[in-house]
Specification:
Elements: H1 2-17, H2 21-47, H3 51-69, E1 72-74, E2 77-80, H4 81-88, H5 90-113, H6 117-129, H7 138-154, H8 161-170, H9 177-190, H10 194-215, H11 222-231, H12 241-265, H13 269-282, H14 285-301, H15 319-343, H16 362-374, H17 387-403
Antiparallel strand pairs: 1-2
Helix pairs in contact: 1-2, 1-3, 1-4, 2-3, 2-5, 4-5, 5-6, 5-7, 6-8, 7-9, 8-10, 9-10, 9-12, 10-12, 10-13, 12-13, 12-14, 12-15, 13-15, 15-17
Length: about 400
Amino acid sequence: MDDMVKQSKLAIDTIVLSPWKRQQRLLFSDLHVYVETIYQSLETAINKNMNDIYGVYYESWIRVLADLQQNPINILYSKVKSEVIIYKEKDEFLKLYSSILRNQIQIIMTLVRNHRINDAQDAINTFLELKPHIDQLKPVYFDALLSLVISAYDNKTLGIGPLLSGIEVRFAADIESKEIYKWLFIKTVQENDVKNLTSAVYSLLKSTQRIQILANPTDIQTGLIHRMKSSIVGNAITKQSGQLYEKSTILLGEVILEAAIKSIELAHYGCTGFLIKFLITNIKSNILQQAYSNVQARFNSGTLMYSESSDKVPVNINGSTFDYCNKKLTLLLFGQQKYVVKSKLELVYKPESYINISTLDCEWIDYLFKKLDKAKSKYGLLFLEDDEFVKDFKDDVHFFVRTKTPPIIKL
């Protein structure tokens, strides 16, 4: 195997320097064989408990991967080897890169099956460090990352915790990572898995907050800023951080609203209650309103994220069901906002404006109230069990819907 690793590095270096297409393609053919053989040898070492051999050869192999992805060609040429290679042979390199990612996932899961959890964590870190700096590679990488997340979630030994801690640090500035979180939100809601749903939601919040720290450096101690900047690998978040933070926060609101709608459809009340409380507590009311409006607009435009979507993680809900679930969502959001304001709770973000409930259809209101009353103890939302508050809440809803008047917070 040591010879295969050396041959792989030599083939990569030769492709970088070679001006001849034929030679480059012949070397890519060799590289595919080398990669498959190296990973098969690593898997054999794991299965046969050859721990020392695995450790030595794995370290030598990841040095080759690091050299390919991270190291400049020389002191006079700042581009890394992968950038040069993809310019020369895009299709061949995409296939090679995809093969490396697929095999790396296989090694992770083999380590987990053999109860080598620390080694599996190291292999996960290697996978995360394979994140590309080249736009053409990002679709391949994030598809593979989603596959890894799916495998991790389905594996009770591994779980999503080790991946979440890496994703929230390394991919804070990557919009593509929101698809990963969206899959987790929808999956955990479908499974009525409040524990993992909570972990995933707070992981995305922490990822979003990393951008906020860099967008507002004067509010944070210099030492912390330095550490945060150095931890977001390959993403130099500069003066655009403020705009990126706002966009990321809106996306945070959107994917959680979509998960909440799905939880209402499935009558998974604990998931719904958690998501409602999170939205009101952790997202500014103007950002929440924007996210809410975006979700409505996507549904109303016919370019659905819901049943016939090109989205990688569709919510899979038909039009009439969405309409019902969305109305119930709107009532729950308004009720929680109103309860927080009335109770004068000390929260990260106190509502400064209410969600606009004036567009709700009058004929649905009493039916929705009956449905909420029937399951009020299952949501974990205090306002639904406060009879005096609920009476005022219902009166307010009827008034704002009947008069088509948006509710406002009286200061």
